[in-house]
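Supplementary material to the annual report.
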Amino acid sequence: MAKTALQFQHNGHEVAIFVDGGTNLLVALRELIGDMTPKFGCGQGGCGTCSVLIDGELHLSCLTLAETVAGRSVETLDGIKDGPNLHPLQRAFADSFAAQCGYCTPGMLMAAKALLDRNPQPSRAEVVEAISGNICRCTGYEPIINAVLAAASGGRARA
Amino acid sequence: MLELRKDIFADERDDNLKEIGKGTQRQDMLGHVTGTSPYFDDHKLQGMLHLKVVRSAHAHARLRRIDTSEAERSQGVRRVIRASDVPRNLNTLLSLINFGKDDEPSLAVDKVRYQGEPIVAIVADSPREAFEAIAKVKIDYEPLPAVFDVEEALKPGAPVVNEVYPKNTFTYHETYDRQQLRFGDADRALATADHVLEQRYQMSPIEHAPTETNGSIAAPDTNGRYIVYTSTQALFFSVDTCAKILDVPSNTFHFIGGTVGGGFGGKVDTLTEPLCILGAMLTGRPVRYVFGREEEMQYGPPRGAERIYIKDGVMRDGRVVARKVRAYFDSGAYTRLSSYAAVKCAAHLPGPYTIPNVHGDVYCVFTNRTPATAMRGFGVTAMDFAIECQMDKLAHLVGMDPMEFRILNAYRDGDMKAHRREAKNTALIECVQVAAEKAKWPLREEFKQMSSRKDGGGIRAAVTLTPRESHALAAAPAQQRTTYDRAPAATRESPPPPPSSTPPSPPPPRPTAPSHGATRFSSVFGTRRR
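Predicted assembly:
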């Protein structure tokens, strides 16, 4: 099968790969680039655990054709730390017991980051809305919502 | 004399653990928030192949012919695995503790017993090529009548789901078709009760729906061993199950797990590892076998459905004097863990109440539905739902407050439970009192004063006279054995004696101090074991 050359920004770094037609961004990130932070949950856009930011906008990588990100900027959980320092959202999730099995956490964090990037002081309702496409089956949503609010009023406000 | 320099590590762990009341961070939290926790599917191995299975299109059908010739020639296919390739193609999970007969193949042999049962496995260079080959496998089915209802399955003439259990019920102690509890004379008490209430309750199967689907990756290691990354919740259980099915010593495997993307009971069945390892053995390459979301939801084992009939006798003053329960646990086409669920179900009767006459029959039934498995209190959850609905209805029937009704009937320290064990450390009364207080639910003073530690025992400790029943026992079928059973059965449990009208001998003395690895209680066999 003919492969297509694909170049894009991955967490600020220029990457180039060859993909088969029909390859989705999740597979490209995990199998071709080796970034295991976006997870496969359903492959149908139903769970949000594969969420990434494309040019700052929240997308489901399992439903995004890899070729459509050519020349664009893709951000995953792997890129949100500042060197060894956790992002305020990561710190807030850890402090608020907002992860149990951890599998939905990468998607939750990207959805939360997309929210705080455009709305640094969201209301509780806005946080609920922002993570409404992400399914958590263990912890429940309360600690996650509280963590996002804590990051907004704490780390973010000071930053 | 060599001495370990403990002082070097003295600050690493305080042996005087004072953790209660303090928040303690999870060890895996940093991995979770940075996306670096190692789930099984995060291992990318050089030359990894992908395994997918052909699943049955029918709930119950004979397999007349399986033609894989076109699939074998399909692009990218490395190996087609058929039932005859599986070294020991019959297993039941709890055979590892000698409970139940082997009843489930890894790949279906002569017939399929539920829709989605694996029939053939295909190992290919990519998932896509595996799926393309699956579409080329031709299976000639002869559909058979199927049974999907637990009570229909027990009727004479019902289709036999699993020939290992021709009566469509799991066989306990090689003899009994049910778990049976008899305490007192429920029929007589029902006949003299002021009110009798009989109700039917039902719970559907429930899918765990973990965000991470079931799966594993197996890779040949140096020295002939295999490394297996797995989503399993039961790592050592899975090692032994794979050793049995693949007929190799268990030290052939190096299992790596522990990071599970949500389990809730749905990842204890060793669903993917045996075929995944077999694929690696047959190709010499790393093999990955992961459920898609549809497979997880449709064919992954759910919490089993239950149907429960409860018939209670209650007096005008609110005392429940008899409880008669008939429950059916839907195991699906194979046993998995449902035999144990029915044991738990029976062990839970009659709920946390002191009722002098209890009669319970709990069946583990085979139907042509997806095999059920563990899930959060399985066997108990549905029974509790039924019992507590029933308690509300009974309270209403006698015109009592439902909270006070529960306090009145709650077991207390010193009471005799239906299993002929003394109730200890009971706390239902206090639980209801606290719940009422938090909910600002008014309780009368006398009910506020009641206590689990007061007024128990005495006549409530008596084992009520239990009439004998005549048992028409079928001859015990021979226990099916594989050569895997290396040390057969010197310590086999003998069938329990029939219910007796004499009180049992007092329980064995308790160990003076708790000691790790000493005598444990086996909830499967209902006995103490070493």
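Chain B touches chain A through 31 residues (CB under 8 Å).
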